[in-house]
């Protein structure tokens, strides 16, 4: 039983995912600091005056629970976009390149699909002969390169 667990942990996919998560957490901390200490002050300054941020007080003055803080939302949105860009360009792109050198296709574009005439499902592979949802026979795929006579 322990041997099977060890083999599971030592698979290449698990190690790759673990390393990716550790790198993602490190980037997350860095990007969080960037948004907290660079973006937030800029957004707060845009409101001007002695406001605590970009937003409106909905309840009694000074109550943080009723302050609609759009600045924090904008900051979180910027954080998300920057974080996903870093993950994509620092983890996904090199991983795709590494796997392609070993003959494995990852994160590929989905192939062509067709629609079932009976149930209107739009997720059927072009080569399917039966609908996976309603089991109706599908017309054969039309070859785009073929000429009609």
Automatic annotation (TrEMBL):
<keyword id="KW-1133">Transmembrane helix</keyword>
<dbReference type="InterPro" id="IPR036019">
    <property type="entry name" value="MscL_channel"/>
</dbReference>
<dbReference type="GO" id="GO:0016020">
    <property type="term" value="C:membrane"/>
</dbReference>
<dbReference type="InterPro" id="IPR037673">
    <property type="entry name" value="MSC/AndL"/>
</dbReference>
<feature type="transmembrane region" description="Helical">
    <location>
        <begin position="12"/>
        <end position="31"/>
    </location>
</feature>
<dbReference type="Pfam" id="PF01741">
    <property type="entry name" value="MscL"/>
</dbReference>
<keyword id="KW-0812">Transmembrane</keyword>
<dbReference type="GO" id="GO:0008381">
    <property type="term" value="F:mechanosensitive monoatomic ion channel activity"/>
</dbReference>
<feature type="transmembrane region" description="Helical">
    <location>
        <begin position="73"/>
        <end position="93"/>
    </location>
</feature>
<protein>
    <submittedName>
        <fullName>MscL family protein</fullName>
    </submittedName>
</protein>
<keyword id="KW-0472">Membrane</keyword>
């Amino acid at each position: 039983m322990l041997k099977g667990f060890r083999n599971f942990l030592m698979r290449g996919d698990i190690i790759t995912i673990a390393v990716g998560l550790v790198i993602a957490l490190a980037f997350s901390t860095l990007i969080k600091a960037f948004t907290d200490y660079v973006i937030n002050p800029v957004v707060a300054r845009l409101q001007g005056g002695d406001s605590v941020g970009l937003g409106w007080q909905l309840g009694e003055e000074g109550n943080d629970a009723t302050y609609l803080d759009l600045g924090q939302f904008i900051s979180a949105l910027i954080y998300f976009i920057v974080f996903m860009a870093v993950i994509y360009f620092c983890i996904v792109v090199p991983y795709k390149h590494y796997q392609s050198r070993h003959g494995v296709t990852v994160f590929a574009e989905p192939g062509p699909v067709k629609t079932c005439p009976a149930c209107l499902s739009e997720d059927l592979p072009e080569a399917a002969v039966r609908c996976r949802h309603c089991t109706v026979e599908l017309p054969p795929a039309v070859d785009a390169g073929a000429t009609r006579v």
